[in-house]
TrEMBL record:
Pfam families: Flavodoxin_2 (PF02525). Keywords: Cytoplasm, FAD, Flavoprotein, Metal-binding, Oxidoreductase, Phosphoprotein, Zinc. InterPro entries: Flavodoxin_fold, Flavoprotein-like_sf, NAD(P)H_dehydrogenase_qn. This is Ribosyldihydronicotinamide dehydrogenase [quinone]. It comes from the Eukaryota. GO terms for biological process: quinone catabolic process. Its cofactor is Zn(2+); FAD. It catalyses: 1-(beta-D-ribofuranosyl)-1,4-dihydronicotinamide + a quinone + H(+) = beta-nicotinamide D-riboside + a quinol. Homodimer.
Length: 231
């Protein structure tokens, strides 16, 4: 799909990690297809995860009682958000597809990636009222979660200790990505690479590489409760 633009938001501390391998494979395969690929390596960038007053460079609309959501909405409209937020928003705005590559932390994303979502996907940029879910401001874009787990696949089933893996995807895929309008592709879950054999890890990487070859032909999931809770 020559001409397509992809943003990979990547969160792992170790350049030699399995997550890094999956990120590198995505860059290589998508570049081969003629896509323009940008990587936001959050740890390498030293990305600030905390949502604070510093994110607004201009005057506050209500300095007596700080409300982050209200102030960033106003700052977005006035063009007074901090430069790191603006830079990431530009990457998202230009992308046809955003891939989030990360290890699962406590059934969610690492803090640095959560901070990216908190700060970058602000009102006015990613959503507004009533422009959310199917009417979200990023509705022309695709999103995909590619993640690794610490537990083996059997732990993430309805009968497993952690419950079906779709359960923990609800707040990420539906409450964040779908809320902002993204059309969400099925997740790529690599189960327990740390405890897998070399052959099993190679198979996971090969599976991801193979999927990427036809990724643009995939249909988004039905990002509604039945996909998560009635499978």
């Amino acid at each position: 799909m020559a001409g397509k633009k992809v943003l990979i938001v990547y969160a792992h501390q170790e350049p030699r990690s399995f997550n890094a391998t999956l990120k590198n494979v995505a860059v290589e395969e998508l570049s081969k297809q003629g896509c323009s690929v940008t990587v936001s390596d959050l740890y390498a960038m030293g990305f600030e995860p905390r949502a604070t007053r510093i994110d607004i460079t201009g005057s506050l609309s209500n300095p007596e009682s700080f409300n982050y959501g209200v102030e960033t909405h106003e700052a977005f409209k006035k063009g007074t958000l901090s430069s790191d937020i603006v830079a990431e928003q530009k990457k998202v705005q230009e992308a046809d597809l955003v891939i989030f590559q990360f290890p699962l932390y406590w059934f969610s994303v690492p803090a640095i990636m959560k901070g990216w979502m908190d700060r970058v996907l602000c009102q006015g940029f990613a959503f507004d009222i009533p422009e959310f879910y199917d009417s979200g401001l990023l509705k022309k874009k695709l999103a995909l979660l590619s993640l690794t787990t610490g537990g083996v696949a059997s732990m993430y089933t309805k009968a497993g200790a952690n419950g079906d893996f779709r359960y923990f995807l609800w707040p990420l895929q539906h409450g964040t990505l779908h809320f902002c309008g993204f059309k969400v592709l099925a997740p790529q879950v690599s189960f327990a690479p740390e405890y897998s054999s070399e052959e099993e890890r190679k198979a996971m990487v090969a599976s991801w590489a193979q999927r990427l070859k036809s990724l643009w032909q995939e249909k988004p999931i039905q990002c509604l409760p039945p996909w998560y809770f009635e499978q």
